[in-house]
From TrEMBL:
The lineage of its organism: Bacteria, Pseudomonadati, Pseudomonadota, Alphaproteobacteria, Geminicoccales. This is Amine oxidase domain-containing protein. Pfam families: Amino_oxidase (PF01593), NAD_binding_8 (PF13450). InterPro entries: Amino_oxidase (IPR002937), FAD/NAD-bd_sf (IPR036188), Zeta_carotene_desat/Oxidored (IPR050464). Residues 305-410 form the Amine oxidase domain. Residues 358-378 are annotated as: Disordered. It comes from Tistrella mobilis. One of its GO terms (molecular function) is oxidoreductase activity.
Length: 413
């Protein structure tokens, strides 16, 4: 009788390289499953691109950017709950302002109402005819190429200007016409299936570190995970049948350690500008959407006014003082002055030149899965919002990638 081949030893230890969101999630899932986890991080603190810092100019603790969750981000919201984080859902009504150009004048104001699909349509001035192009995009499984080519004319219609363009810029961080049409369609289907609450914004209470990163680290430490800050993974350790490795690193760093994998090569920038006025006018909205200007969104929290501009590659080489002046002018215009002085308050400009991968068809084609049997190191699993999650490179995408990486490790058991 022929003996069955011996089953490979089941790993009991995991080395997770990278303490961004994907790495934190993978470490949490694996530690809760009973594995021994070590977590390495190159930076002095966990969080990756979701980080907070003490800014001497404004005198505040700032987030590098305003990272917003949507109601249609179930994995991310569940992660927040699991670690005892604090994100607050904003009201179902928030204002929107249209400008005639960067630093320009107001051409229109309206309220976006998220109570029901009909309320949303009416608040945007949309009728049934405006939704035909959107329905075609949602239902056509063959849609391919850049959105501007796959659905010519869609972005120039009222629906495209009022809904698609702001959503694509915010979620995919790319000019809508260049965005991968299949990814846009998947994103819209998820939003549609989530119902009215899927569009609701959720903001971190007290900043990203206090609301998410610090609770995550505390939970991991309670589970016995050892976190090693300022400890980069310079090379892969030799294979060990008792250990798996999760690379939750940026694509260039992962490719350096695994040269045979394909990774997205291009990126998209995000601009964030934080202002610290002496006082904020009463009754200000917590979130205000802007179209036609430099800013995409204006937020206020904890004494800070912030603007966020997605797909900001063209702004990266402009002087910080010029960007800050334009942003302050837009804030005063959009808020109808609201008692804000003409003189600009203390300000911090944050340019994230490689904020996300570039979500065009070329970039999407290069996203690898967490595992690949053709790789020379089957003990290595990939994680990161840039991997092939089927989602944009957002917090939700990072959480899903971390979950999938952990699941791949656990399947080896």
């Amino acid at each position: 009788m022929t003996a069955l081949p011996a089953r490979p030893p089941r790993p009991t230890r995991v080395l997770v390289a990278g303490a961004g969101i994907a790495g934190l999630v993978a470490a949490l899932d694996l530690a809760e499953a009973g594995l021994t986890v070590e977590l390495l991080e190159t930076a002095p603190q966990a969080g990756g691109r979701c980080r907070s810092f003490d800014d001497p100019v404004t005198g505040h603790r700032l987030d590098n950017g305003t990272h917003v969750l949507l109601g249609a981000n179930p994995a991310a919201l569940d992660f927040v709950r699991r670690v005892g984080g604090r994100f607050r859902e904003l009201p179902a009504i928030y204002p929107a302002v249209a400008l005639d150009g960067p630093g320009g004048e107001v051409t229109g104001r309206h309220e976006i109402r998220l109570g029901s699909p009909m309320q949303l349509m009416r608040s945007l001035g949309l009728g049934a005819g405006d939704l035909l192009g959107l329905a075609g995009l949602l239902l056509d499984g063959r849609v391919n190429g850049p959105l501007g080519t796959a659905r010519p004319g869609l972005l120039s219609r009222k629906l495209g200007q009022a809904v698609l363009a702001p959503l694509v810029r915010a979620a995919l961080n790319i000019d809508p016409a260049a965005a991968d049409a299949r990814l846009v369609a998947r994103m819209l289907r998820r939003l549609a299936l989530a119902g009215p609450r899927g569009f609701r914004l959720h903001l971190a209470e007290g900043g990203l570190d206090a609301a998410l990163i610090a609770p995550s680290v505390a939970r991991l430490r309670a589970l016995g995970v050892r976190l090693h800050p300022t400890t980069p993974l310079d090379r892969l350790p030799p294979p060990d049948p008792d250990r798996m490795i999760v690379l939750a690193l940026p694509p260039t760093a992962a490719h350096r350690l695994l040269p045979n994998i394909t990774v997205p090569r291009t990126s998209s920038a995000i601009l964030n500008i934080h202002y610290a006025p002496d006082q904020l006018p009463a009754g200000m909205p917590e979130a205000l959407m802007v179209t036609g200007g430099m800013a995409d969104w204006i937020f206020h929290r904890d004494g800070i006014l912030s603007i966020t501009t997605s797909a900001a590659d063209a702004l990266m080489d402009r002087p910080a003082e010029v960007l800050a002046a334009t942003g302050w002018a837009e804030i005063r215009t959009c808020l109808a002055m609201a008692g804000l002085p003409a003189a600009m308050p203390p300000v911090r400009v944050v340019k994230e030149k490689r904020a996300t991968m570039r979500h065009d068809p070329g970039g999407e084609a290069l996203r690898p899965g967490p595992v690949d049997r053709t790789r020379p190191r089957p003990d290595v699993v990939l994680a990161g919002d840039w991997t092939a999650t089927g989602l944009p490179a957002t917090i939700e995408g990072a959480v899903v990638s971390g979950q999938r990486a952990a699941a791949a490790v656990l399947r080896r058991r």
